Amino acid sequence: MNRQKPKLAVHKFSSCDGCQLALLNLGEPLLQLPDLVDIVHFAEAGPCESDAEVDISLVEGSISTPEDVRRIRQVRENSRFLVALGVCATYGGLQALANFNDRDAWMSAIYPQPQRIDILPTSKGVSDYVKVDLQLQGCPVNSAQVLNALRDLLSGMKPSVAIQSVCLECKRNGVACVLVSKGEPCMGPVTLAGCGALCPANGRGCYGCYGPSELVNDASLAHRFEALGLDPQAVTRRFRFIANNAAAFKAAGDRLEGDPHER
Question: Per-residue pLDDT for 263 more than 70?
Fold first, then answer.
């Protein structure tokens, strides 16, 4: 008996396409993906059936316009499982930096006719508007995690997600702590694992791309950053960077900005 393969869609919202490119750059595993699913929509790769009913939808990008809101609700209605890919889809991403500023002033400074730009007052993640079955963080997302999650969903299993911090990945990979050895400001102690400690492995501090880990001791890390010479504004910006709209990072940034001496 021939069984119909599950259908997969990959949707893009307000983003840079980086998470889709992470999938396209998989190489051999990408060529094997059609053995598992029927890809009915993935505009970056060719198929374009955005309104198709599917078993799994992978969604990249933040919700930043009224049209995004309409589309994500339609995607949710058409999908058995909806997976948010990357920090834009999970937390709003870099677009959410505008949430802390005067959007109207920014629009006026960039566009000659800003009144023609239809945009929401804030940029947020997908889960602020619809039910999300699984969130996979990253900037870009870890493509191997995406494949594992797809296999788990297709097998009827609940995908496992990391809850520990990047620091544990550094230890597992034998990477020297850049915070200790180089005095490099690093968000690794409060950031979710999943990237393989990419930045520390190259001698740079973590930027917090994967959002907050299970336990976030922002007060202690803020003190450490100040001891390294960062002023209060610079410390605040560390939490208000790529995953700035994640609840724990947003709360830390608001607290630091509100009273830099009360931590």
Answer: no
